[in-house]
């Protein structure tokens, strides 16, 4: 009893109000720019609104019905899924490998880490413009490089088959740095004693990696998996600059589709409905992963 | 601690002041009225625009015009939306007919008759003197909601040196579709046989249908549709007609050239390619004339009318249109600016300065203008084309989506190598569905 009384005295009367005051600037921004749009967009997804007029017409589930009947929507969804399935595993494997390699004592380790992280902080538009040049069929360095090995030059961004691949490669390049840092942090959290014990038992490098590093990294891997999936489902800026959704719509992704309906055709209602479907997909994927990984992590540790 | 709090509150205070100052109106001093004008002129036109405004302010000392530049037409409309919703719309703005549907629906802009038939109006003769194609474009459902500030159309930019080198007559630019095709092939070569063309005969604007340049591509294809005798949509606007025989001919021409010249590998901006002598011909508008004087200094270049198609000569006419917003506090002063802008003398001066085309016939009566035409044959090419130029009548509902579906057909037939008829038919089916849905919405 005594302790609780003591704890209570930590908060004086009126403290709640003061705390609220301190929070209020953030709160105002949060409510106007995040909370309100979230609910307003949900409201709009059942309406038809062109943004110019002051009233939105209620259309019930029409926007959702139109979406599910639209061939283009399914195509766009498929493109987004392909992009995600392409970037997430590549990204994770690559960043884990680099983080692992940079764990060891290495000359220029700090420089390498910074260099690998650089793409993350480069503006996406500038980066995409650079990659446009790299992929250029006439002057691009990538075609030059593969030309040395006698491979014929590819028009990377103008062929439906290669454009998505080109986009995935750039997407991985742009984001692996952040995951590498997260993996590095995770790796540093594994106590050396485990490795020492394994060495005494005669475990090799592979065996240590599979039986200690990977299981111990479980929570990190899980976190990165969820975050990478969310970000790659939301990809937009690099698509807009690199391919503009082309050729033949082969790189048009969900957020691009939302943008097109919202700010080109001014069909805010329809765009909101698509955005909510995107939200639902991400929610379901995340919940599935939480369920699946919970068991795995528990049994592993 | 106290220090921290002081700094913190000072920061909040400044942020607050900045916030409130943003939307504050500039008050007029000494009875002067300021009107705000939004536009997206290319940056090379801005000096001419400043001269124009200075000229207006000289003859109208009680009015000042503040021109505000918004980088692209698309950004302009997005900014207009927020401005209208927050009651901060400009007095006058550039307007694209594609967006008129929504602006009229929101009751955001005045009908022009409100001013034309008002006390300070203009005569019917004046109005009839403006090219009818422009009036059509400035209207929505037969009602005039804006007036043109200047006209544009498309002509063929070509490099005379390259014509000479290829054994072609530099004073005989392609006059027919056949010539366009054969000339463009003659002007394309790969001298060192590395599978890449060092020089390309003609650039065609094929862009991703979903991308920002999709409307631009469609706009440049329309003249070919008309040259073949086709039209975009029926008069009742219930059905698109671009998948007719004429449409198939026009798109087949583009597809042939696109494939023969391997334009798939053409990735440079056309003006850069032209200036660096890698490109012989391209479609282009008069707005680039002032820029080309410097940029193309060491090239012998010229503009030719677009070639004649299977049916007739045609080019597309466009322009920038000025509308007055209902939120404006000074609609009459805004109208004064537009009224002054469409005067033959102003139009002549503006055309000579900016490279844009005049909007009316009477400009030809201004002596300086005739003299200017004699000295500038390239500019004259454009002005002469106005006589048979066509403006695409705005599609009342769903025009943007129809244009998008047409863009898909153009991309599929060229980049996707799909059968031309199939590409156009599939696209037309989608467009017709849009028209039908829009019609149902209106009821």
What is the total tally of β strands of chain B?
A: 12
Give the percentage of residues in beta strands of chain B.
Answer: 5-15%
Mean pLDDT of chain B: 89
Largest interface pair: A-B, 29 and 33 residues
CATH superfamily of the largest domain in chain B: Periplasmic binding protein-like II
Counted by DSSP, the helix tally of chain B is 19
SS class of chain B:
alpha/beta
What coarse outline of chain B follows from CA principal-axis ratios? globular
Tally of separate domains of chain B: 2
Reading side by side through the largest sheet of chain A, how are the strands ordered? Answer: 1-2
Q: Percentage of helical residues of chain A?
A: over 70%
CATH architecture of the largest domain in chain A: Orthogonal Bundle
Task: Describe what you observe in this structure.
The complex is a heterodimer of chains A (301) and B (443). Chain A folds into 2 domains: 2-44, no CATH class; 65-300, MetI-like fold (Orthogonal Bundle), CATH 1.10.3720. Chain A is 75% helix and 1% strand. Chain A contains 14 helices and 2 strands. Chain A has helices at 2-10, 15-44, 62-69, 71-101, 109-121, 124-135, 141-148, 160-188, 192-200, 205-216, 218-233, 237-242, 254-263, 268-300, and strands spanning 47-48, 57-58. In chain A, α5 packs across α8 and α8 (160-188) runs antiparallel to α11 (218-233). The model of chain A has no long low-confidence stretch (mean pLDDT 88). The termini of chain B are far apart. The relative contact order of chain B is 0.16. Chain B is α/β, with parallel strands linked by helices and 443 residues long. Helix content of chain B is 47%, strand content 14%. Chain B has 2 domains: 24-151 and 318-390, Periplasmic binding protein-like II (D-Maltodextrin-Binding Protein, domain 2); 155-317 and 395-442, Periplasmic binding protein-like II (D-Maltodextrin-Binding Protein, domain 2), CATH 3.40.190.10. In chain B, α9 packs parallel to α11 and α18 (399-414) runs antiparallel to α19 (420-442). Chains A and B meet through α13 of A and α3, α4 and α18 of B.
